[in-house]
Design brief:
about 190 residues, alpha+beta, N-terminal domain of TfIIb, three-stranded antiparallel sheet, three-stranded mixed sheet, 6 helices, 8 strands, about 25% strand
């Protein structure tokens, strides 16, 4: 049975003259609400992923249309989050689709007042040179008691929770191999 749309434009009139006296059902619906369709219904495919923000590992359903992400929701089949996402997880679509997302390497020279764009190769070389120099300058082969420590106290790492477990594992291995001792992650703090 197809219901006829109410000619009453004001929800209070529909509420008072219809069956929905509390105004929590059809009386509160507008024509606009009835005409819109969810972004998820037009998706070409649904990919499954894990939220990148913290160590909980909430499952996500990523709705894709024309190879563009149109919606991200919690996966109801997951025993971890049972379809729910925190505010950061719910907004994770912006992590990859936001117009404000930085996609170029920006650099401000010491005592500089302006930012400049660098190509990725140049930026990577600058980082590598500084890491190697810091490691050379702060390397400690033995501690005060003559024990062999082979470490640097001049390099530390504080990782963010937007990385997944595999990336954090590799970062931990890299910094440990460089001799860093202070290696921490925001998700663990």
């Amino acid at each position: 049975m197809v219901e006829k749309k109410s000619p009453l434009p004001w929800p209070v009139l529909r509420q008072l003259t219809g069956r929905d006296l509390l105004g929590r059902g059809k009386a509160a619906r507008s024509r606009r609400t009835d005409e819109i369709e969810p972004r998820t219904s037009t998706a070409d495919r649904v990919a499954r992923s894990v939220c990148p923000y913290c160590a909980v590992g909430c499952a996500q359903k990523i709705f894709v249309k024309d190879e563009q992400i149109v919606q991200i929701e919690g996966d109801p089949d997951s025993p971890v989050n049972r379809g729910r996402l925190c505010p950061k997880g719910s907004a994770s679509k912006n992590l990859v689709t936001s117009e404000l997302r930085k996609t170029r390497v920006r650099y401000r020279r010491p005592y500089g007042t302006e930012w400049e764009d660098l190509d990725l190769g140049t930026a990577m070389e600058m980082v590598a040179d500084r890491v190697l120099q810091t490691r050379r300058d702060t390397w400690q082969e033995f501690d005060d008691k003559g024990r062999r420590v082979r470490r640097t106290m001049g390099i530390a790492s504080l990782g963010g929770a937007t990385l997944d477990n595999e990336e954090n594992y590799l970062i931990k291995k890299l910094f440990t191999a460089m001799g860093a001792v202070q290696i921490e992650n925001q998700a663990r703090i």
